[in-house]
Amino acid sequence: MSGNMNLTLKVWRQKNKNAEGKLVNYQVKDISPDMSFLEMIDVLNEQLIVKGDEPIAFDHDCREGICGMCSLYINGRPHGPKDRITTCQLHMRSFEDGQTITIEPWRAASFPIVKDLVVDRSAFDRIIASGGYVSVNTGNAQDANSLPIGKEDADLSFAAAACIGCGACVAACKNASAMLFVSAKVSQLALLPQGQPERYLRVHNMVAKMDEEGFGNCTNTGACEAECPKGISLSNIARLNRDFFVAGIASDN
Amino acid sequence: MGITGLFLISFLMVHCFLNSLIFINDGGETFNLGAEFMAKNWVIRAMEIVLFGGLLWHIIQAAVLTRENKKARPVAYAASNPSANSKWYSRSMGLLGTILLIFLIIHLRHFWVVSRFTDEITSGKETLFNEMKEVFSQLWVVILYCLAMVSLGYHLLHGFKSAFQTLGWNHVKYNSMIEKIGVIISIVLPVLFAAMPIAIYMGLIK
After folding, report:
1. How far is it, in rounded angstroms, from Cα B179 to Cα B174?
2. Which of A36, A116, A130, B91 stands 20 to 30 A from A30 (CA)?
């Protein structure tokens, strides 16, 4: 078909967590510009399987931008060259015929590589388990509706809750800091009445867990916000800092 | 970093205001009066110790953060395009700060050591204004000071607003104001500071 593209891919291949990895060159031909980026890798993997080679391992699940599973650091940016999308929402029309595309896994000590482009993001799960929940019975739908919540707070909470935990913030940050993720998970509850009883214990525990997991420190470069597929705002980090300060000086824990 | 940073900025403002007295162009009379007040007031003397403590703490925090942050990403990306998502100076605070530290050592040697550890000025033999004229008669010093002030400008451009974010002093009503004040401070302070050696070197200050 006309308009289809031939591309050179440089893909990070690594057998397992402990093996040495390296960038390997691949050629893909006749790629439709309407394919998603992940479909393009599917095509490459079909070729590799036919040749008897090991296909490239990469994370993916819903392929509609809501699960947070797909990762990939494409040409120096998490989720590729476009803003506010995940890799499954990235189409090949964002690239040019003949282009070389470098594909790497998320790089962070807290996200160890499992294989090729797959990293272990369970550090995020452990942070959530350390406090990203409410221990009260929130009741049924009508109970939520009977609680008066300001429209602004509801909107801010909802915007924070849009975080899909993909880890692009950590991948983009020059310090591999998880502050945007943690701040979103703290904020979504800190803004609602249900989150109040455990508000300061939560921020204290989640920040402690984040540090324990070995994520870097926030130096406010703003790279996380710029690369976040869900547009999580830096103002959540300011809220986290504020709550953490209050937790340090005025709470019982 | 936020608290110490804002504290150091508050010092820079006082420092800049007092030194700008040379622009009155009265042969350094007002400036020397100000310098004498600063040298003899015990509150200022005590603050000098706090200031060095603050500066040291700022440097220690920066060193610790840098070490931890390097550890958090042991393997670098092969292809990286950081300018797509952040400003170069926000990622280069350590470099800008190191340039400022080197400048500061030379700067302290020029003025602080002379006024505090020699009797040149206390004995009345020499004034700080004359010291300034002498130091800034050398071209390399003028160039060094100007380059350091470029570093200071970019350091403050990120540092000022970043401090508010770190401290959680953030509100939709005041965010744009904080941003604007940060830009103004990062331009006015370095420009005034740089104007001093330039004006003296060019003989505009008599």
Report:
1. 9
2. A116
- Residue B77, chain A, CB below 8 Å: the answer is yes
Q: Where in chain A is the domain with CATH 1.10.1060.10?
A: 121-250
Runs of H (alpha helix) within A35-80: 37-51
Confidence grade of residue B18 (pLDDT, cut at 50, 70, 90): very high
Indicate yes or no: CB of A227 within 8 angstroms of CB of B81.
no
**Residue of chain A whose alpha carbon sits nearest to that of B73:** A108
Q: Could you tell me the domains of chain B?
A: 2-73+88-201 (1.20.1300.10)
The rounded distance, in Å, linking the Cα atoms of B135 and A110 is 51
Beta strands in A113-241 (DSSP E): 113-115, 118-119
Residues B64-73 have a mean pLDDT of 97
Residue B67 burial class via C-beta count within 10 angstroms: exposed 0-12, middle 13-18, buried 19 and up:
exposed
With an 8 Å Cβ cutoff, is B168 touching chain A? Answer: yes
- Best of B64, B80, B96, B167 to disrupt the A interface (most A CBs within 10 Å) is B80
Q: Distance (Å, rounded) from C-alpha A139 to C-alpha A121?
A: 31
Q: Average per-residue pLDDT in chain B?
A: 95
Residues in chain A, pLDDT under 50: none
What pLDDT digit, counting tens, does each position of A71-111 carry?
999 999 999 999 999 999 999 999 999 999 999 999 999 99
What pLDDT score was predicted for residue B125? Answer: 81
CATH 3.10.20.30-classified regions of chain A: 5-115
**pLDDT of A163:** 98
Please tell me whether residue B165 adopts helix, strand or coil conformation: helix
Q: Is residue A176 within 8 angstroms of chain B, CB to CB? A: yes
Per-residue CA distances from A31 to A4, A49, A122, A172 (Å): 5, 18, 34, 28
Q: Is A147 on the interface with B (CB under 8 A)?
A: no
Report the top-level CATH class of A5-115.
alpha beta
Q: Does B69 touch chain A (CB under 8 A)?
A: yes
Phi (first) and psi of residue A177, to 5 degrees:
-90, 145
Whole-number Cα distances in Å, A242 to A140, A172, B10, B55, B170: 32, 24, 22, 24, 9
pLDDT digits (tens, 9 = 90+) for A21-43: 999 999 999 999 999 999 999 99
Q: Which of A14-18, B86-90, B127-131 has the lowest mean pLDDT?
A: B127-131
- What superfamily in CATH does domain A121-250 come from? Alpha-helical ferredoxin (1.10.1060.10)
- Please give the ipTM for the structure prediction: 0.94
